[in-house]
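pasting for ref. prot 1 ->
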Amino acid sequence: PQRRKPLLSTYEPDKRLESWLKVKKDYSTSSETLDLIPIAGWHGQGRKSQWWSPILLAVSNPQTGTLEAVTKCMSGFTDKFYQSNKEKYSPGSSNVISRPSYVEYAGEPDVWFEPQEVWEVAFADITLSPTYTAAIGLVSEERGLSLRFPRFLKVRVDKSVDEASSGEDLAVLWRKQVERA
């Protein structure tokens, strides 16, 4: 029989130890991206306190004409992007609106954006979510889908809001992910 070396340390949940590292799935393992619509934001914390961070992103639902929240994103942005985004969606501008009836989301962001942009977003995984409504009914009757570790890649100036990813697109990617697992 094979002999195993004794461990130099034991694993303890919720403790940071030099001897144990948490390994997260890399973005590069999923080459898929989604084209999402920024619909709202919160006042940032700490270094990001002057900007909107995180940003709430949505997929479209062409059948109902609604936008379904899928994730909050706060990764991949440059300070320059944060600054121009804050100026674009400054209170009092025509780009800021009151809570829209066509958005499916129970949370209370600090500001709602007029849906007008499409952002390409990378992610590590798609997960079932009790919070987000994206693709609800397509893979689960009571849960929507969300993205783990979303990261902004770029503004898709070549796409209109009508060309953004849909809940069905998200569900297709989720099913592919489940098949690979």
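and prot 2 ->
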Amino acid sequence: MARVVRQRPTVRRRNAAIPRRIDAPPRLPMRGRGLSDVEFQKKVPTVWWEPRLEYGWDSGEAIGRFLAGLKAGRIYGVHCRQCGRTVTPPRAFCELDFKPMDEWVELPPTGTVNTFSVCYVTWDMKPLRKPQVPAVIEIDGTTPRVGFLHLLGGLTGNSVDAVRKQVQVGMPVRAVWKAARERQGAITDILYFEPIRARRTT
């Protein structure tokens, strides 16, 4: 009686049904293009509506009291009893030792420039002919290297060289406030910080 031996299909035979060429999709006759406003309005139903949206923002206890102080023409900070730091803008707890910072202090409207920059564009990328000079201000009475960002003002000239002749790191400055009736309890209640120039003596 003859014995039938079945052979396993080879790899080549098993892969014979797999196509070796992948056809590319047909090319479109032309590329798409964007619609103009008029074309878009003709093809897509649109509704023009000028909304009046009002919203509230909770500034929290620490910043809320700080902003109320600005409206009154005062700068407040908080003191940490654990590490001894005094900081402004105030915060509810110390980020170094996680203890409450509930000892409030009133600070003078003077300080020193920690660092600064000369900018010819606003925060929303609008060009400026006269540059803005944002700076980190260390308010007197606070722990060194703790400050907040604001603008320097009372400067003359439109060039970087002109600004650099008037502004230096470590320079003393003081706050220039809006008129009391114009304050709203915002950081912009301080218009800017101006250099404290030494008085001439005769």
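DSSP finds four helices and nine strands in the chain.
The longest helix spans residues 60-71.
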